[in-house]
Structure formats: C-alpha cells, structure tokens
Amino acid sequence: MSQIKRILVTGGAGFLGSHICERLVNDGHDVICLDNFFTSQKSNVLHLIGKPNFELIRHDVTHPLWLEVDEIYNMACPAAPGHYQYNPIKTMKTSVMGAINVLGMAKRCNAKVLQASTSEVYGDPDVHPQPESYRGNVNPIGTRACYDEGKRAAETLFFDYHRMNNVNIRVVRIFNTYGPRMHPFDGRVVSNFIRQALAGEDITIFGDGSQTRSFCYRDDLVEAIIRMMNGSDDFVGPVNIGNQGEFTIKELAEQVIELTGSKSKIVYRDLPSDDPKQRQPDITLAKKHLGWEPKVPLAEGLKKTIEWFSSIDVSEYRAPTPNY
Ligand code: NAD
Ligand code: UDP
Q: Domain locations in the chain?
C-alpha cells in the first residue's frame, strides 16, 4: 500500500459502513468508525475492535464533530423506509446537518469527503433506466420525502462546498444493495423476505409485486465506492452505482422461496405511498470513469446472503423501530 490514511466512516457500524471499515482496515489504513447505532449494533464491527488501526466512536452526526482525518465516507443515515419514516424530522436532520458537519470538517482538515447518496433522488422515475442527468420525480411533501429530499439537499451542500470552498468531494448514488450484515429487522425487501422464508413465516409483498428494483451485491458496491474515493479529482460525480439486473418484487420473492426451500406462502399487503414503480441504474458513467461494473448476479448474491442469515441468531438483534 502506498500511503496510510486516517479515514472516518460515519454510519460505520451499519450494513455498508461496516464492510467499508473492514476493507479499509485490511488495507492498512487508520480507521475511525462513528455511529449512533440507530439501525445497527456493535456486532457488525466486533471483529475489528481491538485492532490497532481501528477505533469506534458513539456519536450522532447531527452534532458537530472534531477529528483530524484525510478522508471521510459519509454513510450515516437510516436507509429503510419504515425506520427513516419513524422520525422523519430526525432523518432530514441526519442528512442535512450530517452533511454540514462532515463538510465543515473536510474543509478544516482539507480532507476528501464522499457522500452516500441514493437512487431515491430520482423518486418514482418516469425515465427508465435512470442516468445521472435525470433530475427525478420526487414528491416533496410525501412520506418518503424526509429521506429523498434530505439526500437531495445533502447533494446540494456537497456541490456548494465544492464550488465555494474547494472541498474535494465525491457523490455516489447507491441503488438497492443487499448482502450479509443487513439488519434482520431492517425492513428492506431482501432482508425481510429471507428472514421470513427462513422462519417459515408469510412473505409480505407490498402491492401486487409488479414494481421493480435492481439489486446490487455488497462486494460490488464496496469496490465501486473505494474506486470512486480514490479516483480522479476531475470526476466527483454524482455517479450511479448499482446492478442493472432488474426484477419484479414477486420474482424476488419466488427466488428467495426457491433458494431457501421454504414452505412460506406469499401474502399481499397495501403498497406504501410513493413507492417507486420501477428502478434500474444507467451505469455508463461508472464504467467509463471507474472501470467498474458489477460481477455478482442476483442468484449468487442471494445464496451468500441466505447463508449468512442462516448463521445468525435473530433473537440477538433489536428492531430499530416497530416498522419492519
Ligand atoms: P444501515 O441502516 O445499515 O446503516 C446506516 C448507519 O448509520 C447505521 O449504522 C445507523 O446506526 C447509522 N446512523 C443513522 N443515523 C445516524 C446519526 N444521526 N448519527 C450517526 N449514525 C447514524 O444502512 P446501509 O444500507 O448500510 O446504508 C448506508 C448508507 O448508504 C446510508 O446513508 C444510505 O442512505 C445509503 N444507501 C444505501 C442503500 C442500500 O441499498 N443499502 C441504497 C442507497 C443509499
Ligand atoms: N417490499 C415488499 N415487502 C417487504 C418490504 C418491501 O414488497 O416486506 C417492497 C417495497 O414496497 C418496495 C420494494 O419492495 O416496492 C423495495 O423495498 P425496500 O424497502 O427494500 O427499498 P426501496 O423501496 O427503498 O427501494
């Protein structure tokens, strides 16, 4: 490795954050993981605690932080609709005040800072697949707005700090990503279906299951994020990161049932408001600028995720909110 860097990962105990911490620790960097454990628990980073190049801080990004670092991955934010809607005002504060706090720190330390943005900035898209140039179809007063508009405002702050203060930024728009260490009571579709299938419970499809998502395996995602952080200063994003394999939610349920050999039945529940009907990333920019494209097809990633879910004791996990 060429240079040891001091790196802060906010939301570092979460699903994606913990994998980023692990990768950076293994690469020999000095890693600070910061989290308020709203949607995660220490077990995600237990294997890193005690290593000389890993530190864990309990802190909330809505409050200022004072650290000296070279790079920041800003991953802190609840990501599942049920949990981000539990306290929507706090969700908006996490995105906006969290962005202001990490950007202020990046400006003071001359650090590079990467924002975990989302495909949700496109809302319920009427352009398909979605390129970065598409400005989206977001309902600013709907139940998903606390997350969607919070992430959009965070992107605005990133670009304004970049233009006004020369802060070295990166913005990645992450499309639905899944894999080991998703919280079993996270409430997102992959974790819900696998947990339900393994427990022999009904599999809950919201709506008629014809809505689509494109699912990216966590290893592919982590590789893209690290490449983006370390890539050229001339390409700051926003860049879509996701897998182009697009599936209906019903197809996903059927695959999970087949791969787990479960006897679970599919049941249908009301579709939540503003639930996007379709989603697929256009990854032309990621291919061109990062030389990246996903390698893990859904069936393979699901098998690995099911294996992990089979190995954990879900009773050891506390549901972040009742909405899963
Ligand atoms: P996650 O819920 O597992 O991780 C989020 C982490 O942030 C958790 O550890 C949580 O405790 C922490 N957190 C929440 N609010 C905080 C606060 N105020 N202060 C400090 N820590 C706080 O979810 P994830 O899937 O790992 O998502 C990580 C990031 O990636 C999020 O910003 C999310 O919006 C973004 N993202 C994820 C996906 C995906 O499909 N996984 C898609 C788009 C965007
Ligand atoms: N979904 C579902 N059953 C569940 C959880 C989610 O049918 O138990 C649906 C949800 O309505 C949405 C899709 O699956 O259409 C993806 O939901 P998720 O919360 O994982 O992500 P997002 O909607 O943010 O893409």
A: 6-179+216-245+276-296
Distance 189 CA to ligand 2 centre (A): 5
pLDDT of residue 193: 98
Predicted TM-score (pTM) of the model is 0.98
What's the average pLDDT block by block, 10 residues per block, for the chain (324 residues)?
A: 89 98 98 98 97 98 96 98 97 98 98 98 97 98 98 98 98 98 96 97 98 98 98 97 98 98 97 96 98 98 98 94 92
**Per-residue model confidence (pLDDT) at position 2:** 66
3-state secondary structure the chain: CCCCCEEEEECCCCHHHHHHHHHHHHCCCEEEEEECCCCCCHHHCCCCCCCCCEEEEECCCCCCCCCCCCEEEECCCCCCHHHHCCCHHHHHHHHHHHHHHHHHHHHHHCCEEEEEEEHHHHECCCCCCECCCCCCECCCCCCCHHHHHHHHHHHHHHHHHHHHHCCEEEEEEECCEECCCCCCCCCCHHHHHHHHHHHCCCEEEECCCCCEEECEEHHHHHHHHHHHHHCCCCCCCCEEECCCCEEEHHHHHHHHHHHHCCCCCEEEECCCCCCCCCCCECCHHHHHHHCCCCCCCHHHHHHHHHHHHHHCCHHHCCCCCCCC
Please identify, in words, the CATH class of the domain defined by 6-179+216-245+276-296: alpha beta
Nearest ligand 2 atom to the CA of 196 is 8
Q: Indicate whether residue 250 lines ligand 2 (CB < 6 A).
A: no
CA-nearest residue for atom 12, ligand 2, is 275
Ligand 2, atom 5, lies closest to the CA of 189
Atom of ligand 2 nearest to the CA of 206: 7
> Does ligand 2 come within 6 angstroms of the Cβ of 203?
no
Q: Which atom of ligand 2 is nearest to the CA of 209?
A: 7
